[in-house]
Amino acid sequence: QKMSYGSIDGSGFGSRNPFGGPSRQGYQPLATQIDPSELQELFQETSANVFRINSNVTSLERSLRSLGTSNDTQELQDGLHATQQETNKTITTSTKAIKQLSEVVRGSSRVCQERLQLDRLKNQLSDAIQRYGAVQKKIAEKSKALLPTGQRSTKQ
């Protein structure tokens, strides 16, 4: 069964066994097992995930501006929560994929182009995670500030 690029529920690479490859390869490290097209697919999927994280951050920043205003609805709150959960999953999937890519690229005698591609992807993921962390912190602070005084101390 072929993996779709859109999967963020952890059913993709990285969740099938400790080495992250399809389970039939579970008995030996992946580095010797992955073929170039599979490697590029993993690069593309992870790149798409980084894009998704950044899109989610942009959406969270928009929602953040509405918190505490007349546009602050239950729907907005639910959307914020759902986006945060999705982003957390996507980050987990991407981090696993980067680890897997690192092992494969390190264990391979292939061109340094893949190493450059990996470094760029690592930096992009790292930047995206930092942006996400910053917006998450702002959302938490603003949500806490908006709680009625009596609830503040209990919701630490």
Task: Itemize the secondary structure elements and their pairings.
Blueprint: H1 36-66, H2 74-106, H3 112-146, H4 149-152
Any overview of this molecule?
The protein is mostly helical and 156 residues long. The protein has a single domain (36-146), classed as Up-down Bundle (Methane Monooxygenase Hydroxylase, Chain G, domain 1), CATH 1.20.58.70. It has 4 helices and no strands.
Give me the count of strands: 0
The secondary-structure class comes to mainly alpha
**Residue share in helices?**
55-70%
| SSE run | HHHH
In total, the number of domains comes to 1
Assess the beta-strand content as a share of residues.
under 5%
- The outline comes out as elongated
What descriptors fit this protein?
Syntaxin_N, SNARE, Methane Monooxygenase Hydroxylase, Chain G, domain 1, TSNA1 protein, mainly alpha, about 160 residues, disordered N terminus
Please provide a brief summary of the model:
The protein is mainly alpha-helical. Helices cover 66% and strands 0% of the residues.
